[in-house]
Amino acid sequence: MVASDPSLARRAVFLLLVLAILAGLVALAVAALAPGGWSAAEVAILLCYLGAVPWSALSTANPLIGFVIRMGSRDPLGTVLPALRAARPLGGVPRLSTAIAVCVRSEDMTAVVLPPLARLLDGLEAAGAGHRFALWILSDTQDPALAAAEEEAVRSFAEARAGRPIPVRYRRRAENAGFKAGNLMDFLDRHAAGHELFLPLDADSEMSAAAVLRLVTCMEADPALAVVQPLIAGRPARAAFPRLFQFNMRQGMRSWATGQAWWQGDEGPYWGHNAILRIEPFRRHCRLETLPDGSPILSHDQVEATRLHAAGWKVRVLPDDTGSLEANPPAMPEFLARDRRWAAGNMQYLSLLRQPGLTAMARWQLVQAILLFAAAPLWCLILVLAVANAASGGGEGTPPGALAAFLLASWGAYYAAELLGHAEVLLKPALAARYGGRARFALGAAAAMLFAVLFQPVRLMHQTRFLLRLAFGGTRAGWAPQNRAEHGVAWGDAARLFWPETVLGLVLTAALAATSWSALLFGLPFLAGLVLAVPLCVLTADPGFSAWLARHGVAATPEELAAAALRDPESPASATARGGTEAAEEAPA
Hints:
- The chain is α/β, with parallel strands linked by helices.
- It has a domain at 76-335: Spore Coat Polysaccharide Biosynthesis Protein SpsA, Chain A.
- It has 23 helices and ten strands.
- It has a seven-stranded mixed sheet, sandwiched between helices.
- Strand 2, helix 6 and strand 3 form a beta-alpha-beta unit.
- It is globular.
- 49% of the residues are buried.
- Mean pLDDT is 90; it is low at 1-5, 477-481 and 577-589.
């Protein structure tokens, strides 16, 4: 049976907090819209807001709880993952055997996949744990030429490591039935004998030996655990887009995941990779059937977590990103392509909510995943309705102070995780030191937040366009090979992709400018990103701008600073890293 921790009291606290935030935001909306009477547009705005604001309430409650835990607890990780306390201290040879399973499809093996794997294997062997691990490269590559190059790269890699404790093995499927989920299940059925655990990695994953061994010790400490999922931060990136995006997301995920883990407890999420899983329950409970229309389940990880919940197994989150990394898409077009695939997968959950046997928390996990994308059309409609209302004179009675309070509170709730994550770093000298100190971190945080404010309206509008096409059967989604190489984006390509966002932004901006300068001032924070979508896409992929950010250490991660220090001890980045280390040593624990 699922353990009683967290207690119903924790979930009640979370629910009450969400409802309080929700009530406060709705009250501010009414205070801004009601004066002067209700126009049809204002009624529609409120209705749309009631549909969209639950995500904002969740986006505030989760990180707020997490922030309190991370700032107030001596052991925030142990507070939300009891197995971590039971597993300490880290050390010793693991008792359980683990298969490291790396899923690849048309990847650059030499530049992307194999180097971080070599570092992981070296670390495990240096720790004396090599004989408890095996590496499997699981290929779904379909192109014969790419498959041949892939196989040759793995063969050379294996030959270079011949005679060492961790064996390197390669398997390629002729047909990629079930995409990644099918790839992993085929491996577990055919090749995982002798292993109790497996560590699924994506082609762009990178994990440290210490992080992997910590996950294994948690599984050994609690035999009822089926999954322990750590956070996943972005690998050091030179391109401006991933650099800015992942800097913001990394800070937000710490507080969000800590708060969510506190009240979800044993019924947490699984994100598909960089996690440790117990093979026997996964094989027994996580075979995914096709949907009623015959299509495969795309976002398989959340569904697999819900199946394990229902079977009484624990799925826990370790809200720490140390030693757990992945590469983010190199530019806006690739990121939004991935976003569309995720949106298609999450919308499939609508047909899974009625499945029998799921726990209440499992159904909530699916609902939350749906809300992540379903709110996008509502936010876009609110923006259009607000401009139409202002242009028609419907907002003439709105007190400027009430409107400003409503907009500021809504903005703060939407970005609460990122803001609280940044605050945590600035309030903890040792954590700030990992980023080169408070001043260096504050510069990166400001740049990343500015980028987020400009990019998020574009992302929401792009999601809305995709969801509308999806609803009317105008698009098909699947798992295609991903471009991971950094590159520039031509102006013409950016214009072809973002002309709808640009046109809408210009029309709405012109309408507000024709209404009043005050209306334009209130609207600009939400319209600037749409108007600047094309130059934002080009700039954040531009090699020169990307090099400038890297050269000045803007939004540099601890991993980037540490790598720079190793490459060139006399470089500015190395000096920053050294200063951070010294500050960390002087900072109170």
